[in-house]
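Please predict the structure of the following assembly.
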Amino acid sequence: MIDSLLKKLGKGGLYRKNKDHREEGIFSLTSGYITLETKLGLTSTNRCGICIKNVNGTYFSDTIKEVQEFLKISSSEFRTDYILMNDKYGYLWIMIRGMSIEDMLVASNGIADVITERGFRDQMLAAVFEFRKTVRPNSNLDSPQLEPQYLIFNYKREKFYPFVPLAAQEKRRNDLELALMSIISKEIPWETDMTVWYPMWDMPFDKLRT
Amino acid sequence: MSRAWQRRDTGLTLRMITSFVILAVLYLIFLSVLAYLGVGFIPITVVASVLIIAQWYFSDKIVLWSSGAKVVTREQYPELHGLVERIVARNNFPKPKIAVINSTVPNAFATGKSQRSSVVAVTTGLMDILNNEELEGVIGHELTHIRNRDVLVITLASLFSTVAWYLMQFGFYGGLYGGGMGGYGGGRDRGGGGGAILIMLAVAAITWLVSFLVIRAISRYREFAADRGSAQMTGKPVQLANALMKISGTMQQVPNRDLRKVEGLNAFFIIPVHSGRQSIANLFSTHPPVQMRVQKLLEMEASMA
């Protein structure tokens, strides 16, 4: 009896509260991306990647199958397209492409729900959203930065931070990252501790067909 | 429509006026006490005038000499000269002399009595770590110091503090002397004189302390003003923010190791410790904390976008 009571308390009380907060966190991007577009000319490429630490065992692989089922159903419903792959670090990537940033947020949240329910929440590392600069006709022609810029959502800290890699080198454009921060840090849960702005090199975004 | 970063910094102007009013009132009270005690102004005024004129007249030479900065020609540093020329041309500003300090510590300063005779100095270390746009931001900051005549303002403000400091010393020795005279002499008048000098000493000490803090405050707000001026000159506040973070070493804290490599290190559970000591340090500092300056610059960047 006490067990079931605790369970109820957990589901309805603390657990739910925690979950709502998390959802608000990543969903803040639904309004945030408009600011990026109007102020920085950065548009969402409508591609995102969810990075999960692989676990050996059938229970985890069953979970991933469940995620795939979910994606299969939602791909028709939410017009999304997806691919699963492993990277050289031994992490699983679920790459999603949608028609809008909302599609990707709904999909990534659904994936997070499935994984959380199966108890693998701690394996979720990050969700990465890709943006690209669009060249405006009246903008300065000095240096159009067409390389992708990323917002990384760290699932452990539940905060966003910027990552702008310099093409083909393991270096970052700190100036563009700061520009991102200046525009959007007030609107979305922001990682103010710059010492944990860990980069993610060679993300498999190009594996999604364009 | 005027945007936030283009507006005149009325807050700064108000603070400057208030600071000077406070200083003026303090010195009026101080001088009244001195007059009451019958101390002559002439020796003090002469010493103070000589000091202020010398300090102002020789300021650039003293600063250049003490920092080891060497004025460099266009042939020696064509890129640096070109960079400064681009900024001054865009902003209708006379070109300052350019000096270079052979030091790995990234730093820069401006000095000079007037806009025409001013010098902007940068260290070789600064040129090494900053790219051109960031360097432009720093030069813009220093040029704003020149435009705002900050050397003169700070020198003038320091004059009050200097005078108070000399008087405090004068009062201190006077107090000892007066006390010695009063001790065994036994005369009531003399004993009273020693007490009055002690009061003067206390007043001078308080005056000096308060003026010292006020000067520090003025200096900090001048830094914000220079950041703002630089942002207006270059149109790219984020570049100066970048430069400040590089100079202060904050930028070096942005990691280059992959998230997937550090994941196992539990790096995310370390809670940064904030100590209360920061605010006391701020009170005595001539520069505002980098974090705050970067934040203001990023706000400007956001309003410009």
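The two ends of chain A are 54 Å apart (CA to CA). The CA atoms of residues 122 and 179 of chain A lie 31 Å apart.
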